[in-house]
Each structure stands twice: as C-alpha cells, then as structure tokens.
Design a protein that fits this description.
Strand order of the largest sheet: 1-2-3-4-6-5
Order of helices and strands: HHHEEEEHEEHH
Number of helices: 6
Helix content: 40-55%
Radius of gyration: 20 Å
Largest sheet: 6 strands, antiparallel
Oligomer: single chain
Shape: elongated
Number of domains: 2
C-alpha cells in the first residue's frame, strides 16, 4: 500500500492523546493516525491485518491445545514480526526460536512472509543434529509439495511462507485464517523437532515418525 505525505492541522490536545495511544501500541504517531482513520472508514490496513494474524497466533500457540509444546512468547521487535520459543529436551534444554516476519504486500510469487527457526549455541554436536533435522524436514515437505523454498546453514532454517489463492477469495484471506495456518505449521514443526531429539541415540531413524506427524498435519488431525 502506497503512502504519501499530507499536511493536517490538529489541536495539540488531540495529538497528545494520539501519542499516548501510539506509545501503548508500540508504534509512531503517523501509523497511529493512519490506523484510527482506517478504522473510521472501515478499511483494513496491512498493519491491522498483521496485528490480527499475530493475535491469532498468540491465542493458538499459547493455548491449552498446544500446551505440550510449552511455547513462550517473546517481545515483538516490530509491527511486522512475531517471536516464540520452545525448549528441546537435550543437554541444558536449549530453546529454539521461531520468528515470523510478514510483508506489508504479498509478492508476485505469492510469498507473504518468512519463517526463521534457530537457536544460539556453540555446541558443534547440537548444530550437527539441528542441521540433520532441517535436511530431513525439508526432504519430507518436498515429497508432498513442489517448490518449497527453504534454506539452512546448520544453525538456522529459513522458509518462505506462501498461501494458495483461488478465484473465490480473489486473494483476500482473513488474518485469522493466516494466523491459523502459520500456527499449525509451527506447532507441527516443533512436534517433529521434539520427536527427532527424543529418538536421538535410540538407534531408530526418526524420519518415519517425523513424516507421520507431517501427514497428520496435512490431514488436519493436528489442527486446533
């Protein structure tokens, strides 16, 4: 959505109240005024849509349905990002961070954001295990979907987020729906990751169990 500079004459008292709201919503004056006017004329801005997505994700990932994964909400660095973390049952219980960044406008290839998964560690064994999991996960996804765009450097996994649009929706999918899709994917990813580490050292190849989790996700059995 394009933005332009406009000159407005406002009373100091009104601006002071707007600034208070902007502070409460962790944004600036211009964005706050833009949102207030958009609400008044019933227009959904990209910022409002992203807020709707993140609110839905918070409700789902921190709900009792996902309690077994023990997601913890992290501070939001910006209006376009959402961060949670989840502990792995491994030495010192390292935490994996899931970061979702949404774009204000959907790209031509359908990409509307990116998911980044990673943890901070200097443990080379742990890095090797995470790298192995990322490779196995990507291979599983690629069996069911063509063109999955993801990359990994061992410590971090980065995946483009896309949605399929049809003529019925004309590309307009609610923030609640997008929030559901991302939350369910993160939950499935985290379940597979925990299963991988549960089976580490057991002599059993975790790929089969990971793929079963992914198949359940595709069938909707792990949906909220």
């Amino acid at each position: 959505m394009n933005k332009s500079v406009y000159s407005l004459v406002l009373s100091d008292a009104v601006v002071a109240e707007v600034d208070k709201l902007a502070y409460q919503h962790s944004t600036n004056r211009s964005n706050m005024i833009n949102q207030i006017l958009a609400d008044y004329v019933s227009y959904t801005t990209p910022e409002k849509r992203m807020h709707e997505v993140f609110s839905r994700m918070e409700d789902l990932l921190l709900s009792d349905n996902f309690a077994h994964n023990a997601f913890q909400l992290l501070g939001l660095p910006s209006d376009t990002m959402f961060n949670v973390r989840s502990a792995i049952q491994y030495k010192y219980n390292p935490s994996v961070k899931y970061s979702v960044e949404l774009y204000r406008q959907r790209q031509e290839d359908g990409t509307f954001g990116v998911l980044k998964v990673g943890l901070r560690t200097q443990n080379q064994t742990l890095i090797a295990l995470m790298s192995d999991f990322y490779q196995k996960w990507h291979a599983i996804e690629s069996k069911y979907f063509d063109g999955i765009e993801a990359s990994s450097d061992g410590e971090r996994y980065v995946r483009k987020l896309k949605l399929g649009f049809n003529e019925d929706t004309d590309g307009d999918i609610s923030g609640l729906t997008v929030g559901d899709v991302i939350s369910r994917y993160i939950n499935t990813f985290d379940q597979a990751l925990k299963t991988y580490f549960d089976l580490t050292g057991s002599g059993e190849d975790p790929t089969k169990s990971m793929e079963q989790i992914y198949q359940n996700y595709r069938k909707g059995e792990c949906f909220v």
